[in-house]
Amino acid sequence: MGNGLIAGSGAAPPGSLTGAGIAARARGWRAFAATLSMIKFQHTLFALPFAFVGAVLAAGEVPSGRLIGWILGAMIGARSAAMIFNRIADVDFDRRNPRTSSRPLVTGELGLGFAWTALGASVGLFVLSAAMLNRLALLLSAPALLLILSYSYAKRLSFLTHLHLGASLGLAPLGAWIAVRGTIDAAPLVLAAAVTLWVAGFDIIYACQDVEFDRQNGLHSAPRLLGVARALRLSSALHLLTVLLLLLVPLLLPLGWPYLAGVAGTAALLAYEHRLVRPDDLSRVNHAFFTVNGCVGFLILAGIALDLAIRP
After folding, report:
1. Contact between 68 and 55 (Cβ < 8 Å)
2. What is the CATH number of the domain that holds 172?
3. Given CB 3.0 to 4.6 Å as the disulfide criterion, which of 1, 62, 81, 159 pairs with 220?
4. 112-168 tens-digit pLDDT
5. Which of 113, 106, 88, 114 is nearest to 31 (CA)?
6. Is 9 helix (H, G, I), strand (E, B) or coil?
7. How many domains does the chain fold into?
8. Cα–Cα distance between 281 and 272 in angstroms, integer?
């Protein structure tokens, strides 16, 4: 007699979870969390604001919901594909590097079969989104995929790997502009170049953590080639060029003081980033990498949004 759940007899009430159901749901959440960890979903903060920058500048206003939806689909698909392929290609290196030894493909939280399936789904989402935007976006989807996926092997070949990564993220404003207008113009190319140098600069800072590992495993990076001190100076130079390129954009598009204020804020953030990291003290690399750079794109986007809002 009594409640069947407590006594262990009888059927569970409709809609209730059994022990096996709870365990299955917990496994599902763990797999979901591991997948987000594998693709470093939080790093979307670097490129996504610049995609919206490209879209808003191309449209001269907030684009339609349809355009925004397919641009988001392309961004999520492309970025997820790049990160998953990178994890597959680097799994042996990640296993040997103490900094990356807890990644899901190394620990076994996710299997290679799942990763390949997720890669295929991500590529499919990217190509479908491009096809739904316009013909030029679809035609350029293949070379874009080649660029972002080949980054996974760039570090095996050249210290220019940082620029390769930067160019991959530099596609964000250019691709969004193409999504809206169906053309390639000077302004988004300048923005793409600025994003390329910005990302290359902060990737050099991040790579300083792995300089000994890179040396021992035959991998290439600016810190390994130049030493940490000179690599940090190169990073500073790239970020100076980033600001100069951002200042060129108002010569190509009708942007006023709100955009320039966003660029000034970006310059201040980048200067602060370089004060955080010194050759003899890399303890604040993660703060410089995530916190500071996570704000850059949003500052530029906010400046452009305000500029459009107050425009007569």
Report:
1. yes
2. 1.10.357.140
3. 159
4. 888 899 999 999 999 999 999 999 999 999 999 999 999 989 999 999 999 999 999
5. 114
6. coil
7. 1
8. 15
